[in-house]
Amino acid sequence: MSSAASEHTAKPRRVFVVSGPSGAGKGTLIRGVMKYFPSLDVAISATTRAARPGEVNGREYWFKTDEEFDAHLAAGDFLEHVDFAGNRYGTLLSEIDRLHDGGSHVILELELNGALAVEHGPMSSTLVWIESPDFEELERRLRSRASDTDDEIVRRMAVARAQVDAKAEFQYVVVNDDQTRAIAELQAIIERELATPLV
Hints:
Blueprint: H1 3-6, E1 15-19, H2 26-34, E2 40-42, E3 46-47, E4 62-63, H3 66-75, E5 78-84, E6 87-92, H4 93-101, E7 105-109, H5 112-119, E8 125-131, H6 135-144, H7 150-162, E9 172-175, H8 179-194
């Protein structure tokens, strides 16, 4: 374990991790529950991918060069980090500290490997898997958001199919078949966990 990560073993932290295939609606559900939890805040991930039109550094992501990302890795600055779709992503421990020091619980939106890395890491975490009702609906959502090329959609669908059994690793599974119902289910999960004392 890195020296930076080991410093966090002494004080368990509440971290919610929301994961699932691209297009399942993770971000939509997270935004839907935020209004119910003033003490819950979204941690901003670092990434080496280029910013898309309208994205702002420090809002959607902390945009890093490969050299900056390597420097963070060498310093043990990440809670988790993964390679995904040709880019690198990671959650900086300093970002978790920033939110916890401000009195917030933390929610992370991560892909599968990042989520599992948090589960086996130094902080207490609750993992929630979000999935669409079926693969046809998932592909429809990916195409409707118009942010990926056809090749990217094919790759994302292949990843989704390969991860079909991943939900067994999560404490909770939410099927996003109806947005209002799914938001209410995620809200209930967070309320239940916040009411349970950390061991």
